[in-house]
Design brief:
Helix 2 runs parallel beside helix 3, helix 6 crosses helix 7 and helix 6 packs across helix 8. By secondary structure, the chain is α/β, with parallel strands linked by helices. The strands form three sheets. A five-stranded parallel beta sheet has the order 2-1-3-4-5, with helices on both faces. A five-stranded antiparallel beta sheet has the order 6-7-8-9-10, with helices on one face. The C terminus is likely disordered. It has eight helices and 13 strands. The longest helix is centred in the middle third of the chain and has 15 residues.
Length: 260
């Protein structure tokens, strides 16, 4: 079964979160501060983390940064207060995959955690249901060329995404992507040449019907830093101003580059 580390100095909140996760078939462990959380993660690697930003000892942002440094693909869900938008955006920038604003519905939090676990390939117990996850949109008519499928993998120029192995390789070097970055890249590769606004990306990749759309903006920026030769002048993941984002596929073979 999947293991989730719950990091929150509010014992009451932590007990509720742990109880709901365990009821959903997840093994949950609680750490009350930053040092205890880092020690627990090092001693018994979790499959996902629920992280409060306001922690004693070492704050949540630094805990997230250290966890990400140790394991780039560890799913992290932040707990934030309504007035902490700046910290929330910063948390997303340093690697958190998702967030829930306090006060929150424990059921919603469990569904968010289950979604992250499934995307990371972890077993989430009998309470999880594939019906909770939105169905993937069909690929565009005419196939996926030049981004193409081969034995389940997706290719675009020097970029290869392997869903089964949960790996992305660019020019022979494996990229360290978070769960959401991986899913966002897979979405764009399976919908090349199409413009997606932030609302549609939030529904398709995050499975949210509503939420802070700056989450999408931050993840797009982080993804560009990993897949673009020059993130300040993107040629693959481009912005269509006033509309959204589009993946412009490489027109020919690996290493050929992308036209302006």
């Amino acid at each position: 079964m999947a293991r989730v580390l719950v990091i929150d100095d509010d014992v009451t909140v932590a007990q509720v979160v742990v109880a709901y996760l365990e009821r959903a078939g997840v093994v949950a462990e609680h750490a009350a501060d930053g040092p205890a959380a880092l020690a627990a993660a090092a001693a018994n690697a979790p499959d996902a983390v629920v992280l409060d930003l306001m922690l004693p000892g070492i704050d949540g942002l630094e805990v997230c940064r250290r966890l990400r440094s140790a394991r780039a693909d560890l799913p992290v869900l932040m707990l934030t207060a309504r007035g902490e938008e700046e910290d929330r955006v910063l948390g997303l920038q340093i690697g958190a995959d998702d967030y829930v604003v306090k006060p929150f519905s424990p059921r919603e939090l469990v569904l968010r955690v289950q979604s992250l676990l499934r995307r990371a390939g972890a077993a989430v117990g009998p309470a999880a249901s594939a019906s909770e996850e939105p169905a993937a949109a069909p690929p565009p008519a005419g196939g996926l060329a030049p981004a193409q499928r081969a034995a389940g993998a997706l290719y675009d120029g020097d970029l290869r995404l392997d869903p089964a192995a949960h790996r992305v390789v660019r020019s022979g070097t494996e990229l360290q992507l978070t769960v959401r970055e991986f899913e966002l890249l897979r979405w764009f590769l399976t919908h090349p040449g199409q413009v997606h606004d932030r609302e549609s990306l939030m529904r398709g990749v995050w499975g949210w019907e509503y939420g802070d759309q700056s989450t999408v903006t931050v993840h797009v920026r982080r993804l560009r830093e990993k897949v673009e030769a020059d993130p300040s002048r993107p040629t693959r993941l481009v912005t269509v101003f006033g509309v959204g984002y589009r993946w412009d596929p490489t027109p020919s073979g690996p290493g050929s580059g992308v036209g302006a």
